[in-house]
Design a protein that fits this description.
Chain lengths: 327, 119
Amino acid sequence: MDKHFDRRKFLKVSGMSLGVGALISVAPAMAGGGPAATVRRWFRRQNGEEVTPFNLVQLSDAHVGFQGPPNPTGTKAFEHAIDVVNGLNPQPDLILFTGDLTHEAEVAGEHAKRMQLFQTLTSRLKSKKVMYVPGEHDAALDNGVLYRQFFGDTHYSFDHRGVHFVALDNVSTGKPAVGAEQIEWLKRDIARYPHTAPIIVFTHRPLFDLRPDWEWFTRDGDDVLNVLAPYENVTILYGHIHRHDVHQSEHATHYSSRSLIFAFPDPATVGDKKPVAFDKEKPFKNLGLQLLAEKKGRLGVDDVELTLREFGGTDGVQQISRPGAYL
Amino acid sequence: MKRLLTLVLSIVIIGLTAVGFRLYAQESQPRVVTISAKRFEFTPNQITLKRGEPVTLRVSAEDRDHGFYQKDLKIELDLTPSHASEVTITPDKTGRFVAICDHFCGSGHGNMKMVINVE
């Protein structure tokens, strides 16, 4: 075994903030020999592509259709995030959207309009490989029927540049759970891979008990983590909590992305779950995305907060409200 | 005559024993607290339990599926309108515990919660 190759550090955070969501770089330690070379060869045999560095972006919780005091600007932050992603150089190969694409609607037909608007907005992304999982606001009220019409399956997997990606649905039964059937599917899906294979799971709710009385948990999250436990390079990306967070469990590292509609406070500092108040002088404050990319041989996850620095003129909400600013 | 007396005494003893058992069983049954759930509230929205005392929480959904979840007290119920669900717990610590609906039920779902005080 190559003593210089630390497999557990394959997907580690570099933790540099750019000031906007999440950019993720992948493939780091796989340049080494020993087990790393074995995994590279394995992926090349299976998929015709080795583990090679690439960037991806995580977006989350746009809640298209939401209107309310925590954010009276509607889709402005989401649209700004699309502009920020389109301005990246190089462009990300892949964009992951971790749920709550839309906000539910009580009026018949309205939710479908919101999903249509979401698709119209995401069609502006230059990077065309965009993968989704549902949040409860997308899929819990109708068990994912409408979501599937617009976005396809709620759980699936694929390989990209030698990394195995798993989309997990922990919302569409209406319960905060992945469910026994999907967990059996996960077991079969990853059984094909060596334990050293890099795996990125993306889902909506945290798979660990972050703050259960704020609904920041998944009932059977431990069962999912137990299935993943034999694998040495597991990264989990999620949304739902509307804030950036990093958590290390025994066998995986969990990263949440900021929301694109409103933020929740640090649960360690307050008792009740209430959105952070809207700041009309800084309408994108606390909102953002995650950028993941290779950084000196490791996975770097950058938490990016949206700002108004791309806009001229006076500060504040007036800038993004002027005619033609986005739409 | 002696046989009749024996029979009557036997019936009385059996009857008293049955009543005694019934009373004992009633006393040993946990207290039942009834809670109803509908979008987006629990009624009552606050209850008080005693540490170390077994209690059965009987929770019914009035309008649609809901959840009733409190991690620290080991409460995890799925509620449907067709029948009441129940769980018996013996709180082993005092404090203020927030129980939530954890089955997404619409726009006010995030505020559907109640307080369980344990003294």
